[in-house]
Amino acid sequence: MPLERTVKALVLVGGFGTRLRPITYALPKQLIPLAGKPMLYHVLDQLPADIEEVVFASGYKADVLERYLTQHPLRWPTRTVPEATPLGTGGGMRNAGAGLSDPFLVLNSDVIAEIDVPGLIRLHAHRGGVGALSLSEVEDTRPYGVAALGADDRIERFVEKPTPEAAPSHWINAGLSIWRKSVLERIPEGRAVSWETEIVPGLLSEGVFGFRCPGFWEDAGTPERLLHSQRLLFDAGRGGPAKLPDGSRGRGPVAFAPSVRAEGAEFGGYVHLDADVRLGAGSFVEDSILMEGVQVGPNAHVRHAILGPHVRVASDAAVDGEVLASNLDSRAP
Ligand code: GTP
Asked: Which ligand 1 atom sits nearest the alpha carbon of residue 111?
């Protein structure tokens, strides 16, 4: 169904991604590949085709991101608005706010989910108020801010990090929301501002509604959660065709570039292999992301690992649960 109105999307891509270091020393988090393509491209898959424009509020590694976007164009017109100094989520929104639609969408760029964006836009149009937030349901509420919901799923307040028993609900901010453009004026200029903690609580009295999303959800900002996001994407059939590289054996899913060579290698499933990855005979890879040019020696084992561009894993070595950046030889066995 076409959108009822013209909507632009603002995507926050300016964070340092500290929890994914050392990979993010060279690369913005959003370009880390999983299940066949960079995180950002999975996030944007949720947007309908008739979004009018996608605006990126960028900062850290803005040039790297912009180059990648130019080389791998999206289906919507795009524009990048970099910050000279990090402005936080709210400051980034204000800085990139000129020319947005009313209302506009805001997306975190590190949340892997399946949110019904046209449904969110319709809910906002019908309920009114200043905004609406997609909500995901979690079992363990302790790491999150939880929404207390009133009539019509109006958000009354957020309760930070409650135990599951004490939580007013198990619905948390899923990282994709819609706002009237006037809210941008509430963000102070010229300093870093957190949208979620400094601005949103003050907007609740003007009507912010929750939109419950039953699909999967994961914040891909840590190594464990990034790998979990990859498993979710594969299980949802969003990781490309279910086959293995020529001459390899074992279990998929494996997403791999055509230039990958893996003759004699074995897979345990849930693997992404970027361009020019080489896996030696007798090597075993499972639940991992191997970025461009990674080399794994014969009989080496790689499990639950994220290996940055051109990392080399020595023959017979075992890498388990590690995040390694460029050109480090893994330890000998
Ligand atoms: P960590 O350092 O690991 O916490 O990651 P992060 O820097 O990405 O922070 P966080 O995961 O809290 O960020 C949530 C979203 O906001 C991500 O999409 C970030 O790219 C984005 N973001 C965080 N800080 C800024 C900022 O200063 N400016 C802009 N434009 N976006 C930001």
From this structure: 18
